[in-house]
Hints:
This protein is of the alpha+beta class. 42% of the residues lie in helices and 21% in strands.
Amino acid sequence: MLHIQTLRENPNFVIEKLKIKNFDAQQIVNDIMTLDIAIRTLKKSLDDNLMMQNKFSKEIGILFKNGQTAEANQAKENIAKLKIEEKETQETLVVKENNMQELMVLMPNLPHSSVPAGKSAEDNEIIYAEGEASPLENALSHWDLVKKFDIIDFDLGTKITGAGFPVYKGKGARLQRALINFFLDSAIKQHYTEIQPPYLVNKESAYATGQLPDKDAQMYYVALDDFYLIPTAEVPVTNIYRDVILKESDFPIKLCAYSACFRREAGSYGKDVRGLNRLHQFDKVEIVQIQHPDNSYQALEEMKTYVISLLQQLELPFRVVKLCGGDMSFTSALTYDMEVFSKAQKRWLEVSSVSNFEAFQSNRMKLRFKDETGKTRLAHTLNGSALALPRIMAALLENNQTDAGIIIPKTLQNYTGFEIID
């Protein structure tokens, strides 16, 4: 959530910056500014009211002592009237503050100055590419390969649950587990602390990281308990630090977590959802950093480089794109996507996003630190997929298919215990 001080200092700057995200903020900023003036006026009125109550309270004892009973009783009546006014003003203030909060949470994060303008993925900026992004002749798609080798069963998942919930079998399950362990071990080597988080979170946690209210329709909700299934481990892991005040010496905080992820993906259809391309339940290893504001963009570059190293070890052709304003998430200030090339589907598949949210999440969750001067400031939060498994699995299967079978990258063979799926 944007800080109200940002809007107070330069509302026109906020309006112009959000145009890069294709968000028309003119009316909502005007409404917030109107409410802000009203709230500050009401707060001053409450301060003035309290000052008058204190004044009359001090006078009452003196008046009674001097035998000025009528004046003392009048002062008591004045206090009673002021208390009624105070209650009414306080009630109005609560309504105004709630109205402003409802508007503030609808405002996206401001994009970083380097974010390119654009409306969709076609406008993203390719900043790096590596590997041979060329199709394989007569290649089978992964949804045909998994049937051929009996390693993932989409029909069985549909029978048990529904579409988008595949069942991994045999070497498919072992490859899935190998990827998870490889990603976790790699993160730990980079000094990330492993976390095993809950898969359900409360409303406060989903709100704190920006899933609510923005992504409400995309989340699975357990009404009886008022819980949400997590769309990513980012949500519970970042919320470890909700309502926490850190010391400067605590930075950097680096956490990683494996979790299943749950997304409704309402409205998805076509080739983008076939097979492993888009699932309602999938596995992912997430990396999260809590950083000093001065160091968060250096940390983002380090996270990007780290994810690149994973793709290099998996020997997959990939590219890195900087997302344009129209393709960025609600909460992000700057995002890099990593995409692998599918040699059977002949297209790029997004497998990771690494993002800096600056103080947007921290302001929602009151994640603060005391700097060397003793001043309390908001920390910066970052997160990234390192990596999401479904499309990595799809690319590994499709790109490494041979007449003999599917060759497992060397870096995974100690994890899988086999070199080929045949």
